[in-house]
Amino acid sequence: MKKFILFCLTFLFVLPVKAELTHPIDLLNAMMEAHKNRNYELHYILQHSDNIKSMKYHHALENNHEFAQLLSLDNAYETILLRNNAISYLGFNFTPFSLKGTKILDALPAVFHANFNELNHYDFVPLGKSRVADRIANVIKIVPSDDTRFSYTLWIDEQNYLLLKSELFDNQNTLLEQFRVIEQRVNDQFDNLIPQLKTMLLPPVNTQNSLVNTPLAWQVNWLPVGFKPISSSRQVIPVGQGQEEVESQLFSDGLSTFTVYLRSQGDEAFNNQFARQEKLILFTHVLGNREVVVIGDIPMSVAERIAQSVVFQQ
Question: Which BP terms from GO are recorded (predicted)?
Answer without folding.
Answer: regulation of polysaccharide biosynthetic process
